[in-house]
Amino acid sequence: MVYYDITQEQLIQMVTEAVLLEIKKAGSNVVPTGISVRHIHLTREHVDYFFGRNYQLTPRKQLSQPGQFACEETLDLIGRKGSIKKVRILGPERNKSQVEVSITDARMLGIEAVLRSSGDVEGTPGITLRGPEGLLVLNEGVIVADRHIHMTSADARRFGVKDGQRVRVQVEGQKPGIMDGVVIRVSDRYRLDFHVDTDDGNAFMLSQGQLVTILK
Amino acid sequence: MVYYDITQEQLIQMVTEAVLLEIKKAGSNVVPTGISVRHIHLTREHVDYFFGRNYQLTPRKQLSQPGQFACEETLDLIGRKGSIKKVRILGPERNKSQVEVSITDARMLGIEAVLRSSGDVEGTPGITLRGPEGLLVLNEGVIVADRHIHMTSADARRFGVKDGQRVRVQVEGQKPGIMDGVVIRVSDRYRLDFHVDTDDGNAFMLSQGQLVTILK
């Protein structure tokens, strides 16, 4: 048996690419699912605040979207009613800090659940972040991410959909059904992936990478 | 202004009955939603074990199904990975003890999520319960309750469905969609109610009592 010197990450990448290639061949409307657990995006300024000036976040795992990565670093979320420890930071830095939680998390924290697309944080609830050496109060930035599908413009042509369009997605399995109002997000920097949070994932008993169908 | 001497519970009961009456009048396929938070059903023997011989559970709130009530008494759930404190016991006693959790809860506890109808606990995972004065290891009994609609035989005739049939339920709102595979449960002891757990409730952003539609 021959062992090649590749990392588990490279292997996952290769398998993912192979699956995506098969999906495209089939000419079907299927899309792999990515379930997002609660996480934090920080500005450069807030990385400095928590970890020191010019600190570089430590990549732990590449995510499905090119250039995005989960970091070794975590922070605690502190709400009025409860707190959640060790919530992972995702890199790279963004121009606004943002905390993405499920509605289940929001209730546990005692924070209003506001459904938004990533980046659209104006007027959303705030939260307190606790790092290894300090607290930071965000005045806004807590969102429940609206279900969405990342795709390239080539994917969009193939599916016959446009950026910003809302579609229905069919899920099979033990808890089957249809998620409606799923936003299409098109950019050639994206890779095809249906992003839901853990509430959606658990309600539909989805597993990471499970194939679902865009309904026309 | 005249104040009548009724409890909040009686008021809720009256409003519920009035809503159900309106629903029936309309001749439509709408059903009110009841979201079940994690809870525990105990046998008479296990009530004795935790609280003392012939102890009577203390009703705190009547539930939508006639004769069912949430109790003042709670127990802690202890799993391999985590524990959940103060989980409410529902009365009256049953002939098998059963713990109903969401998939989110099951993950937090480190227990396999097994989808079952209430009462069907054979071969399901076990759990440790912690009471005020002791621990009890259940060898089985942890289920994720399958989505279902309680109704009377008159409701079933009106909707044109049968006991055990699976239907689709349409949800409107900010996170709309369709739950498929929803089990119809018919008994003249029931009252019309669509029962989901907190994962379904949060994924579809449902509120307690929200009206949903049975699709034919």
Keywords, please?
homodimer, 216 residues, Barwin-like endoglucanases, nine-stranded mixed beta sheet, 38% strand, Phosphate propanoyltransferase (chains A, B), acyltransferase activity, transferring groups other than amino-acyl groups (chains A, B), acyltransferase (chains A, B)
Describe the protein.
Two copies of one chain form a homodimer. By secondary structure, chain A is α/β, with parallel strands linked by helices. The first copy, chain A, has two domains: 8-34 and 146-215, Beta Barrel (Barwin-like endoglucanases), CATH 2.40.40.20; 37-145, no CATH class. In chain A, 22% of the residues lie in helices and 38% in strands. In chain A, a hairpin with a 6-residue loop joins strand 3 (59-62) and strand 4. The model of chain A has no long low-confidence stretch (mean pLDDT 93). Strand 13 of chain A pairs antiparallel with strand 13 (177-186) of chain B.
